[in-house]
Amino acid sequence: MKITSFIAASILLTMSSAHADEQSLRTTLAKKYPATSFKAIEKTAVPGIYQVTMGQNIAYVSEDGRYFFFGALYDMETQTDLTANKKEQPKTLDVSSIPLKNAIVTVKGNGSRKLIVFTDPDCPYCKILAKTLDSMNDITVYNILEPISALHPDAQRKSENIFCSKDNARVLNDWFIKGTQISNARPCKNPIQDNIDLANSLGFNGTPMIVSMDGRVLPGAADKNRLEQFLSHK
Predict the structure, then answer these.
(1) How many whole angstroms separate alpha carbon 122 and alpha carbon 78?
(2) Are residues 155 and 175 in contact, defined by beta-carbon separation less than 8 angstroms?
(3) Distance separating alpha carbons of residues 114 and 103, to the nearest angstrom
(4) Does residue 23 sit in the same domain as residue 127?
(5) Domain-terminating residue out of 52, 86, 120
(6) Contact predicate 211/122, CB 8 Å
(7) Same domain, 116 and 227
(8) Are residues 81 and 100 in the same domain?
(9) pTM of whole model > 0.70?
């Protein structure tokens, strides 16, 4: 009986400690990234690494909140994608709620295939996605600039300068593809704050977020094959 009580007490102590660790990390993340809403925080099997859910995005973060890893966590012994089981079921959006007049439009080929991309000029994954999209044919991309200042302090200034540039599609493309520096543009009425508010209302707390014209959502820097499947609705 005493052994059973000891085991039960040990389990409760372990659960309490894990909860305390997760709460401590939640507090740290809230201080470091006040503009980002962290829905769930869980320990992983990797010591010192936690899984965090931000809107529809899942990431892995060090216990000090400094380092983030985006992608899938695999258990190679069981050949299991541990991330896939945690992802929310796909949902669709009402695309009419996204004002495309606020987008910077880039076109490749005849532009017959269309996507909306919520993007941050200082997001490294957004640059990867932009280069992938640039390599594809017959595509129109509606780029909604959504700077996440908590992660990229200079992103809002860059977003405003890009949008207000005379040829903003070229400036955005040159920044993402060539790394050409963004010049200061004459200030203009811009939708950047509206874009941020819209993204928050949609639960988009990370970038890039890809939206099809029928409302399907694909988070992250998908590769070319995945994008082709997404465009053909497979």
Answers:
(1) 36
(2) no
(3) 13
(4) no
(5) 86
(6) no
(7) yes
(8) no
(9) no
Residue 48 CB coordination number (10 Å): 11
State pLDDT tens for residues 92-106. 889 999 999 999 999
Q: How far is CA 110 from each of CA 114, 141, 194, 233, rounded to the nearest angstrom?
A: 11, 12, 30, 19
Boundary (domain end) residue, out of 36, 61, 86? 86
Q: Which amino acid is at 3?
A: I
* Angle, alpha carbons 61-195-34 (nearest 5°): 35
Q: Is the peptide bond before 208 cis (omega within 30 degrees of 0)?
A: yes
Structural tokens at position 169? 């599609």
Our count of domains for the chain comes to 2
| 38 Cβ contact partners less than 8 Å away, ≥ 6 residues apart | 26, 29, 30, 52, 53, 54
C-alpha pair distances (Å), 210 with each of 56, 178, 216: 11, 22, 8
**How far is 215 from 209, CA to CA, in rounded Å?**
12
Domain of 138, in residue numbers: 95-231
Tell me: the pLDDT tens digits for 116-153? 999 999 999 999 999 999 999 999 999 999 999 888 99
**DSSP structure string for 141-156:** EEEEE---TTT-TTHH
